[in-house]
Amino acid sequence: MPQALSTTPEVTMKRSVLSAACAVAGTLALSLSAATASAAPTKPNPNQPEPTKNLQRGQAYAGWSVRAGKQGPAKTGTGVQAAPLAAAARTAGIDVSGWQGNVDWAAQWNSGVRWAYTKATEGNYYTNDYFAQQYNGSYRQGMVRGAYHFAIPDGASAVSQAQYFVAHGGGWSRDGKTLPGMLDIEFNPYGSTCYGLSQSAMVTWIRTWLGEYKRLTGRDAPIYTTNSWWRQCTGNSTAFNQTNPLWIAYYSSTPGTLPGGWPYYTMWQYTATPIDKDWFNGDLSRVVALANG
């Protein structure tokens, strides 16, 4: 029969200290695990619509405010009443974000989609985990693709946000298949409608972002917005209608009133069912022309 090991007071004390340390480590590990789980982003589900309430930083996407019912009436003030296009004069596209996860680009191509924009960044704190699959996947499928930045004007400066965007997928090359980066500027998902800026300050912020983007890439970025937000937060500024293509968001059978003195829209996000769908104002050759600059 084996003999019992003798235990000295010193050994007993060391065992007690070790046991206590293990207990603390275990508690800490459980706490860290719980914290990590609570901080983990919502897993994307392409079969479910994106939420419109209680968005957390990084979760905004092009059109969230239109889905939330903030697009406003079709006729607001003066402006061009844009008409829908004949099928021969338009090109189907989609825009996606992290909410869509891995996109089946072959299926989108087979449905007629020929161009796509992917959310790359938000503010100076978020990058899309699915950006590579979405941005490169659409390109490999044969689509003309582009990236977009969700602006947070009450956060980091316009210059730093433009630089962050270019550094994280928002660059451009004249390859005939890469569209200029897009500035998504719409209702604030996280606070006051106009991000706490006056109309003149908002116009300055937009101008600064666009200027920095052009300095870095040589391209004028399209502006994605809604008629109601543009009128409320920029005073319906006409500062960009000769340089920056308009991407209007309006979920209806027509694009409604165009803001900012734009004589026509270049892109129109017209529905979010079952994915954000868009029309390009022109045939595929015009999409390529925008890509080439």
From TrEMBL:
GO terms for molecular function: lysozyme activity. Its EC number is 3.2.1.17. GO terms for biological process: carbohydrate catabolic process; cell wall macromolecule catabolic process; defense response to bacterium; killing of cells of another organism; peptidoglycan catabolic process. Residues 1-39 form the signal peptide. It catalyses: Hydrolysis of (1->4)-beta-linkages between N-acetylmuramic acid and N-acetyl-D-glucosamine residues in a peptidoglycan and between N-acetyl-D-glucosamine residues in chitodextrins. It comes from the Bacteria. InterPro entries: GH, Glyco_hydro_25, Glyco_hydro_fam25_subgr. It is found in: Secreted. Pfam families: Glyco_hydro_25. One of its GO terms (cellular component) is extracellular region. Its main location: secreted. It is an enzyme of class 3 (hydrolase). Keywords: Antimicrobial, Bacteriolytic enzyme, Disulfide bond, Glycosidase, Hydrolase, Secreted, Signal. Residues 38-59 are annotated as: Disordered. This enzyme has both lysozyme (acetylmuramidase) and diacetylmuramidase activities. Belongs to the glycosyl hydrolase 25 family. This is lysozyme.
